[in-house]
Amino acid sequence: MEILGYNGCNDSTQRGACYGGGHGNGSVTASLSGVVSSSASLTVTASGSAPALVQHVSSSNTRNNGFSGSFCYHFQLPNPTTGGNAIVVGFTFNGNPTPTVTDDKGNFYTIEANHFDSADQQSIGIAAAFNVAAGARTINLCFNADPGGFVQPMATEFSNVIRVDGTGVGSNNSGTSASAGSMTPSQTGDLVYQVVSSFSAMNPNQSSFAAGSQTNINWSLLSADLMDGFAGQFGVYNSTAAINPTIAMGTNQKWVSAAILLKTGAAGGVPSGMRIVHLMHENIPTHTGAGGSGNNFPQVLPLQLACSGNLLVAMIGGGNPSNLVNRITDTKANTWTQAGTPQVIAGNDTVQAFFAANATSGPDLALTLNWSGNNGGDFTIFFYDVTGAASSPLDSNSVIGTTGTQTTATNLTAFTVTAAGANELIFAQTIWDANTGSGMLPAGSFFDTNTFDGESQSGPEPVDENNAWGHILTTNVAPITITWQVMFNGLPVGNWAGNAVAFKVAP
Fold it and tell me: How far is CA 466 from CA 52, 167, 185, 437, 492, in A?
């Protein structure tokens, strides 16, 4: 957990009935006896009255893809929420439709900031819900009209955040420093939350993001998506003087930014045990349909990962054509190891898993990915930042990889994983040729793929490529058969490649 001192529709199985998607599809089924239920109790500890970061997710941009139907973007927090905490949602979108935010537990969200850049037709906003019900996970960012092709959300759960302080602000300009606008807190100790989006058709969009360096506040990056140019930061402000939240960018571009002040006080708590703190959805495309510019992404690719845990996991999937990551390095000198062997079918669908054990983390962690060739392709990486893992976390007997071809339309059961013990985290992914993933079995597992209303049934798409990612927290050593649910009946997924890897909890 990250505590800031005064220094400065449902997930998994039900989701398939609610939403639509497409780069390929599959399903995985597991036995209930080996999986924690989404309502299983975890130890929750109070964190005094200082606000604490509980979890954060950053999703990919829809880029050039428009919406239909209810005009919603559906995404998930890594874990179910803890009752009494606050959820803050930052988002950017095209045009000036009216945004609303809901979740699968009926929590009430208010739009606290909403700024429209009329010159560039891009908006940015922040919504917040307080004293939330336990167990919320799926968040829906919706609009009263088609928001156009550039929608991207993030969401953060905090403990000890109780309400908004004043009116949020927003601004737009160009340069390498993005400032949201001036705000004056009513009391010292407010939590400040800022989100920024920069404009570029190139991949990567930005070369770097850096947290602010203003007085009386210690800023920390929440996430920094270089491919899409989308970042957030937060910090506790020890003053009642006006503050203009500012985040630095490595590339001079046009940008929009918004920020809010949040009052702090004793509320909620922080779960203990092994859990995901940050989840970054990173879209790495070549083709325009997947959000690329038509040019191959760099063979030596820089990325950023804000993190605070002791285990970092990269689940890498894609294709069109296949391409492999040979090596990952970072600025904390962590050792990234490939779990198992890459799985490739028909020279196209590809999956890999890397991890950094006993990791040194930080909100400013910079990564370098070395790809095997400069042939590009359309890839998505799910970066998981995990706290509470064992110092030697890999359950080497539970690393699974396989390929296949589905010719009969049904959910896709890909493989069975048997963990060495209870409370292990299993990460799974499958890449396929057709259809869209909509859920994960068994019940109690957590489907992590995002979708939006109106995406094509088989892609390629810039939001998780219509494929399947998810994770499971085990309760015992019973075998778990993973099945992916698919969104469109009557459409076989065709060729597919999948893998899964399990990690042990700290003693």
Answer: 33, 38, 43, 6, 14
Cβ neighbours of residue 268 under 8 Å, at least 6 residues apart?
A: 54, 82, 83, 84, 85, 86, 131, 158, 159, 160
Residues 225, 197: one domain?
A: yes
**pLDDT tens for residues 100-120?**
999 999 999 999 999 999 999
32: in domain: no
The CA distance from 283 to 345, in Å, is 21
Residues 502 and 425 sit within 8 Å (Cβ to Cβ): yes
Token pair belonging to 244: 């203009």
State the pLDDT confidence band at 375, using cuts at 50, 70 and 90. confident
Q: Which of 368, 376, 297 is nearest to 327 (CA)?
A: 368
Provide the domain count of the chain: 2
Q: Edge-to-edge, what's the strand order for the sheet holding 300-304? A: 300-304, 366-371, 325-330
CA distance 248 to 364: 12
Split at pLDDT 50, 70, 90, the class of 46 is low
Specify whether 267 is located in the same domain as 279: no
Range of the domain at 394: 275-505
What the block records as the tokens of 5 is 């001192």
Least confident of 18-22, 371-375, 451-455: 18-22
Query: Do 169 and 226 reside in the same domain of the chain?
Result: yes
- In this structure, is residue 24 part of a structural domain? no
Q: Are residues 415 and 432 in the same domain?
A: yes
Q: Is residue 20 part of a domain?
A: no
Q: How much is the pTM?
A: 0.92
Query: Which of residues 210, 239, 271 is at a domain's end?
Result: 271
Kindly report, residue by residue over 134-183, the tens digit of the pLDDT: 999 999 999 999 998 899 999 999 999 999 999 999 999 999 999 999 99
